[in-house]
Write a structure and sequence with these properties.
Layout lengths: L5 E3 L1 H5 L15 E4 L18 H4 L1 E7 L6 H9 L7 E7 L2 H4 L1 H9 L3 E5 L4 H13 L6 E4 L3 H4 L3 E2 L2 E2 L14 H7 L10 H16 L5 H18 L2 H19 L4 H9 L12 E2 L11 E3 L3 H8 L2 H9 L12 E7 H5 L3 H12 L3 E7 L4 H8 E2 L1 H9 L14 E2 L2 E4 L8 H4 L7 H11 L3 E11 H7 L3 H13 L3 E10 L2 E4 L1 H19 L7 E5 L17 H14 L15 H11 L2 H6 L4 H13 L20 E7 L1 H8 L1 H10 L15 E8 L2 E5 L11 H4 L7 H11 L11 E5 L20 H6 L4 E6 L5 H7 L3 E6 L4 E3 L4 H15 L5 H18 L1 H4 L9 H20 L1 E3 L11 H12 L5 H16 L9 H12 L8 H7 L2 H16 L4 H10 L6 E3 L3 H4 L9 E3 L9 H21 L7 E6 L1 H7 L2 H10 L1 E5 L5 E6 L2 H4 ...
Parallel strand pairs: 3-4, 3-5, 5-6, 11-12, 11-15, 13-14, 15-16, 16-17, 19-22, 19-23, 23-24, 24-25, 28-29, 30-33, 30-37, 33-34, 37-40
Antiparallel strand pairs: 1-10, 2-4, 7-8, 9-12, 17-18, 20-21, 21-22, 26-27, 31-32, 34-35, 35-36, 38-39, 40-41
Length: 1425
């Protein structure tokens, strides 16, 4: 264990570089000749003759991500012996496009071509074209490039071209493949690391293999070895090797020069450690650096008295040896050896912030081997000692050390690093298993290597940099990513404040783990938005009161102090929510926090006395609160400033002056923060955003600074108890979703001025989120520092038929059965069917062609009605709400399986699968098998007739389809049974542990990959969209949209179609909506060798066979921020289409661009529009929610005002998310829009379920209609159609994609869900949360009626089902008075706005109900004063 430290001389250290580099800064190419002055004006010209400089070799060297090493390479060229005459031109990858002529000329004159790390598609195409024509005879060496370029490698007889049989590039040559396995552990994930080991000895091995091919391969390997080791002298040696060889082959006529060349000795390879550990105190006076060989020896030195003494001598602040958390810090070796100053600064700051770094430098591809072989944790040590964890055989106990967290500055996947990113997610299971064994936070934090600090500050993290830092690491379960700095010129600079942010978050996690559970201070944050509609204690698809109850009881079992709640039989989550609702009443807030306990006590007393105006649950003994008491504070603005700091407080003062403090203030204008305290658990409601009463404010204020009470709530929650705060060590945001992650700030990559960054501070954020929403969860994770714990969607139900619809089905069946023989009876039955269809609105869906139909025509029509009823009966809906951590009942399991398999399995077969699972649960075998899935695998073999002599493929061939379905059903049942892991994961996060990653999605569309829940969900790789399946489905959908439009418009094509591009449906459908855009335009995705989409190429019009349709792409804020690469590719496609050599009559993009250009409009090809940068949402739902609008046309203009910002490569200086307001272009596109397209990605979120659909799609439709001329025949503007594609549950091979008009889908959804007693009754069973779900759908109904059309029967039946049914109304009112009041209010609003025609008697009843409800709510609000 006393292995000496490795010393590297300063000279070698300063001139070394490695595989990757750190900048993309553009610089002019230069020419270096070893016997010329490099400052000579002529020497920098790229236009040189082949024979210039007396036969010197013309060498082109182009490197990706390495412009900061340009001087090093130039110097290496100048140091060559005089015999090696060379004209060296060094280019950065950015020069390939920006200095295109210079680069082209240089390559066309090159004798020798060298490239490294070229991946950009445009660069690959440009180099491929040049190499196809030039450098035919000389060596071409391409290291670590795109696979398309690797095939151009050639030295003499050695090359990496394809086999010649039409196959693609072969990659490494067979000789390398044959011996590669000898240099790795034999594990798939170690192959790349083994490749680097091969480079060390490969050239030496090939010395002993005779033949020209072996010699040429050796030259290539030796050149690569020099390049890989890096540094000035190694690059010089590589250039000498290649130049010397070239000159010897091409100067045979000059014997004297040839002899001189042959006498030259190749410099020795300068080898630096592949991996090692460093510290600023190991830098000697002469600049030499000592590296520790492995973590254990490093820690022995770091904890030694010698290190302490050295720190004192150098006035270096060390973290305390005994108490400081130990952080594994993974660093790029190339940055260490090139002496990038930020490395030393980062280590210094860790030490000064009380963290003990263990800085391990690596090439980048072997991060997983460091975690696996060199690191351990207390959790892993305990697991090994108890036999629950088995370490990998590669673990090195004599070299490893224990850590509290892992921080990677590398980014990329943990397994394979940059090389592993080519096949995203390939080794996720390996990484997840390693990190799960460790159970410590895994954080990726790094300075930006591809962006300058000013670019980040103005635009956020962009493009490839976002994939490196966020998308790829998140596949491994990385959390809390922090941008530590970026480029300043060619240098990498840290921002000290961001390093402190990282350190504070590390301290937060580790302090949480080190605090015993009984002493941990936990806050649980619920939601109450929008106000005044009963939303307190609600979340999407989650039964919050019961989930809260489950969570508190589990915390108690784990040793947390939750007061008396868990032991009180009368304690109820419903009671906690009811009490929190009281604390949010305006009159209670006005009285201040000191009187809030009295307010709650007063309500409890009234409930006990039978007061109907108070939530019934408060009548339980002790109010059902389990001993919870009010805890709160009244905070002055000066006190807030002390916590918030002067800079952020100044922003608050400017946005919220004293007379406009916003909500949550008492009569003294103090901010009131309050909640319920149960032991060490504080439960509160997230403050309102503060724009509910003034929604128009967002139209004019892009920087919506949170109001003072919002800031006060988070600041006080984090403030230590000794300073008067709640002392929260971790916050649980319970359900989807809150607002903190949506606050103004950087779109991606928080900085000090990002409000989410300020609000969260150093608190670990446990964010319980719906598994089926990987889109919005990205914001919670990236902007809100959320460690996600997913929860399952509720069970699915089949709509069935009810009331009048059930009666109609009977009538139709009776008519079609032919049992009625007499003509009079048949006529009566026909009339009854017609009357029933009119009452239920079925004639809107199955239109009667004529009132006097012949018998044959009526028979045909009635068959269509029958088919519609069958479809309606089979419609799925989300039944009720999910309770966190609750195992599904057999009935619920059956509903999941029924929805998943449809008619592929009978009810009996489904019950059999469930019964088999129960039997296994009871079996004693479960005690001796790792888990049910292991047993299931064995069972499957027996079930299919597999035995020891039968291979799995043979067994599968003998298995019937039913066998396979039965096994799949059992697997799904087992995975659904693991819902308990949802709370397990919450507890694990509160222990400072690691949560396994999983893709977000839903069972119906994504299959079992999204189960079990309780996982840290992530999105998909944005560089692989659309997928092949998504492209096929999207293309078919676009063709169906066009077909329907042609049929409805006399064969005329639409000039413009608006397509909504949302993050959620893009992720869940793998990019179907993107494919629709491409297909409408007449384009298709182009993928490079690794499967990444790199371009959208235009299909020739002759092949397309129709005009190119213009597209207005309406981007959600999440799509804009999460898929910046797609935005850039689409923008590039539209730009090319606008100038394509085609007739404007056949290219509507070009037609409209020319018209705009003729009017002097800039960027006439802009087609991608969204909200202002960093902002989200159209605000239309806020306006509708408040009823703050007059004419429906105004909703379209609100949408337009919020979506006038254009995005793409041509905006904000190119390649950024910086939007530019382009109202003229948007106006033009809206005026020509004839159809809007919207995808629905899941059963849970239909058009009628959430506000966002009408607020965006409906309002977009209205904005387009506002710009249409008046139709003289109707006196109204022309209607813009909306095509809706239900993209859930379909397969990739569907021959036809169902595309319906929005009104058809609305009717279908209302019938199957909102008007369905089965759906209603399921929601009524969910208490206040279910009542709120009813309430918000009623609001959405008004929104759709304002922007599209809602049939009268929908309002009729909604009134009957929810307001006029006394039993239902009573239950709604009892569960949630504000929600019931909103239901009645919306019905009256619909009548008042002319959306609904009904009789006066109904209106009078509703008015009476509203008055009673209003009195009740007002009585509740004013009862305390």
């Amino acid at each position: 264990n006393n292995r000496p430290l490795t010393t590297i001389p300063k000279q070698q250290l300063l001139h070394s570089s490695l595989l990757l580099s750190s900048t993309l800064v553009k610089e002019a190419d230069v020419t270096t000749t070893n016997n010329n002055n490099s400052d000579d004006e002529n020497s920098s010209s790229p236009n040189v003759d082949k024979n210039e400089d007396n036969g010197a070799v013309n060498v082109v060297l182009v490197t990706g991500f390495e412009s900061f090493n340009r001087e090093l390479y130039e110097e290496a060229g100048r140091l060559l012996p005089t015999e090696c005459k060379i004209n060296l031109k060094v280019f950065a990858d950015s020069d390939i496009q920006s200095n295109k002529q210079s680069f082209t000329t240089a390559v066309s004159n090159a004798d020798l071509f060298i490239a490294s790390l070229i991946f950009d598609y445009d660069d690959v195409v440009a180099i491929s074209a040049l190499l196809d024509e030039h450098v035919q005879g000389g060596p071409r060496l391409l290291f670590e490039c795109a696979t398309e370029l690797m095939s151009y490698n050639r030295v003499g007889s050695f090359n990496m071209a394809g086999s010649g049989d039409g196959g693609g590039p072969s990659g490494p040559p067979p000789a390398i493949k044959a011996i590669l396995s000898k240099f790795s552990s034999g594990k798939e994930e170690d192959k790349i690391n083994g490749y680097l080991k091969l480079l060390k000895v490969g050239p030496d091995l090939l010395k002993f293999i005779p033949g020209e091919k072996a010699s040429d391969l050796r030259t290539w390997l030796e050149a690569y070895r020099y390049w890989n080791q890096g540094g000035r002298n190694n690059v010089r040696a590589m250039l000498q090797l290649l130049t010397q060889r070239y000159l010897l082959e091409h100067q045979s006529d000059h014997m004297k020069e040839k002899d001189a060349l042959e006498l030259l000795t190749l410099p020795e390879l300068e080898v630096t450690p592949d991996v090692g550990l460093l510290h600023p105190l190991l830098v000697g006076e002469g600049g030499s650096v000592k590296f520790a060989a492995y973590p254990k020896s490093y820690m022995e030195w770091r904890l030694s008295p010698a290190c302490t003494q050295l720190a004192k001598e150098q006035n270096f602040q060390l973290a305390p040896n005994d108490t400081a958390p130990r952080i594994a810090l993974l660093l790029y070796r190339k940055h260490v050896i090139t002496n990038q100053r930020y490395i030393q600064d980062l280590i210094r700051q860790f030490e000064s912030q009380g963290l003990l770094p263990i800085p391990v430098f690596i090439n980048g591809v072997e991060a997983h081997t460091i975690v696996r072989d060199w690191l351990t944790s207390q959790h892993e040590i305990d697991g090994v000692s108890h036999g629950t964890i088995t370490r990998d055989s590669t673990y090195k106990p004599n070299e490893a050390t224990e850590v509290d967290a892992i921080v990677s500055t590398i980014g990329f996947p943990l397994v394979g690093g940059p090389a592993g990113s080519m096949e995203a997610g390939r080794n996720v299971d390996v990484a997840s298993a390693l990190l799960d064994s460790m159970q410590v936070p895994y954080i990726v934090a790094s300075p930006l290597l591809l962006q300058s600090i000013p670019m980040w500050k103005s635009n956020g993290v962009l493009g490839l940099q976002s994939v490196v830092l966020y998308s790829l690491p998140e596949l491994d379960g990385a959390i809390d990513t922090v941008v530590l700095g970026g480029l300043v010129g060619d240098k990498i600079a840290l921002i000290p404040e961001r390093v402190r942010k990282l350190c504070s978050r590390l301290h937060g996690w580790i302090s949480l783990r080190r605090t015993p559970p009984k002493d941990r201070k936990i806050s649980i944050m619920l939601y109450g938005f929008p106000p005044n509609v009963g939303a307190v204690g609600t979340a999407a698809l989650l039964d919050v009161p019961n989930s809260l109850e489950n969570l508190l009881k589990r915390l108690y079992k784990e040793g947390y102090d939750v007061g008396d709640f868990a032991t009180d039989p009368d304690a109820s989550g419903q009671s906690l929510v009811a009490a929190l609702s009281i604390l949010g009443e305006n009159s209670v807030i006005a009285a201040g926090s000191n009187r809030m306990q009295s307010a709650v006590d007063h309500k409890m007393e009234r409930a006990s006395n039978g007061d109907q105006t108070v939530a019934e649950t408060l009548a339980r003994p002790g109010g059902g609160l389990g001993g919870a008491t009010v805890k709160g504070v009244d905070m002055t603005f000066d006190e807030l400033e002390n916590m918030l700091g002067k800079y952020m407080t100044k922003k608050v003062r400017r946005a919220w002056p004293e007379k406009e403090r916003g909500p949550g203030v008492n009569a003294k204008n103090e901010m009131v923060v309050a909640g319920l305290e149960l032991g060490n658990v504080f439960i509160t409601v997230q403050p309102l955003l503060g724009v509910e009463g003034d929604p128009m404010r967002l139209l004019f204020e892009r920087d919506l600074t949170p109001h003072p009470q919002y800031c006060a709530a988070y600041e006080w929650m984090r403030l230590p108890e000794e300073k008067g705060g709640a002392g929260t060590q971790a916050v649980i945001h319970l359900g989807m979703h809150g607002t903190v992650e949506w606050l103004p700030g950087q779109p991606l990559g928080n900085d000090r001025q990002s409000w989410a960054d300020e609000m969260m501070g150093s608190m670990p954020n446990v964010y319980v989120y719906a598994a089926n929403n990987p889109s919005e969860s990205i914001l919670a994770k990236r902007r809100g520092y959320g460690t996600l714990v997913s929860y399952n969607v509720p069970p699915y139900g089949r709509a069935g038929l009810y009331l009048e619809l059930a009666n109609l089905k009977d009538l139709v069946n009776e008519y079609r059965s032919g049992e009625v023989s007499s003509s009079s009876s048949r006529f009566d039955l026909r009339e009854a069917i017609l009357a029933s269809c009119e009452r239920t609105g079925i004639t809107s869906d199955v239109e009667l062609p004529d009132s006097n139909l012949s018998d044959e025509a009526f028979d045909s029509w009635i068959a269509t009605v029958s088919n519609y009823l069958v479809e309606l009966e089979a419609r799925l809906f989300s039944s009720g709400l999910h309770t966190l951590g609750a195992s599904p009942t057999d009935k619920e399991l059956s509903s999941y399986l029924n929805a998943y398999f449809g008619d592929k399995l009978t009810d009996d077969e489904i019950e059999s699968a469930i019964a088999a699972w129960h039997e296994q649960e009871k079996s004693e075998e479960i005690q001796t098998t790792p888990n049910f899935l292991s047993w299931l695998q064995a069972f499957a073999g027996n079930f299919m007739g597999q035995n020891d002599d039968t291979t799995s493929s043979e067994a599968e061939a003998h298995a019937t389809e039913k066998d396979l379905l039965h096994v799949e059903a059992m697997k799904i049942v087992d995975l659904l049974g693991k819902n308990v892991e949802e709370i397990d994961s919450v507890i694990n996060v509160l222990d400072g542990g690691y949560v396994k990653p999983a893709p977000g999605g839903d069972l119906l569309r994504d299959g079992t990959s999204v189960l079990p829940t309780g996982r840290n969900i992530h999105a998909l790789d944005p560089y692989r969209m659309p997928s092949a399946g998504a492209w096929a489905r999207g293309d078919r959908a676009a063709k169906e949209i066009i077909r329907q439009h042609l049929a409805a418009n006399g064969g005329a094509y639409p000039e413009t179609v608006a397509v909504t591009l949302w993050g959620l449906d893009t992720i869940k459908t793998r990019g179907e909506s993107i494919a629709i855009v491409l297909s409408l335009v007449g384009a298709r995705p182009v993928k490079e060798g690794t499967g990444r989409t790199v371009c959208y190429e235009l299909i020739p019009l002759k092949e397309l066979g129709r005009p190119r349709i213009d597209v207005l792409a309406s981007l959600s804020g999440i799509f804009r921020d999460s898929f910046a690469n797609v935005v850039d590719l689409l923008d590039d496609m539209f730009e090319r289409a606008a100038v394509e050599d085609e007739s404007p009559d056949l290219n509507y993009i070009k037609k409209h661009a020319m018209e705009l250009e003729a009017g002097g409009t800039e960027r006439p090809a802009a087609r991608l529009f969204s909200n202002p940068p960093g902002d989200y949402g159209s605000m239309v739902n806020e306006v509708v929610g408040n009823g703050d609008w007059d004419e429906s046309e105004s909703l379209g203009e609100i949408w337009k005002g919020r979506n006038v910002y254009s995005y793409g490569r041509k905006e904000g200086g190119g390649g950024t998310r910086s939007g530019t307001a382009r109202p003229e272009v948007l106006d033009k596109l809206l005026s020509t829009t004839e159809r809007v397209v919207q995808e629905i990605d899941s059963v849970e979120y239909g058009l009628t379920d959430i506000q966002e659909y009408y607020a965006n799609t409906g309002a977009l439709k209205k904005a387009a209609e506002n710009r249409k001329p008046i139709d003289s025949s109707t006196g109204k503007t022309k209607t813009v159609a909306v095509s809706v594609i239900e993209a859930f549950g379909g397969s990739d091979d569907d021959s036809k994609i169902p595309v319906r008009d929005v009104e058809d889908v609305l009717r279908m959804e209302y019938r199957s869900k909102f008007l369905n007693p089965k759906w209603r009754d399921a929601m009524l069973e969910q208490g206040s949360g279910g009542a709120y779900e009813v309430s918000q759908r009623m609001t959405a109904m008004v929104g759709w009626a304002a922007t599209a059309n809602v049939d009268n029967f929908v309002f009729d039946q909604a009134a009957e089902r929810y307001a006029l049914d006394e039993e239902v109304a009573s239950k709604l009112q009892k569960n949630n008075p504000e929600a019931f009041k909103n239901v009645v209010r919306r019905l009256l609003e619909a009548s008042g706005r002319g959306m609904w025609e009904t009789d006066e008697e109904t209106i009078d009843k509703l008015k009476s109900l509203y008055a009673d409800a209003d009195d009740m709510v007002e009585q509740v609000a004013s009862s305390f004063g």
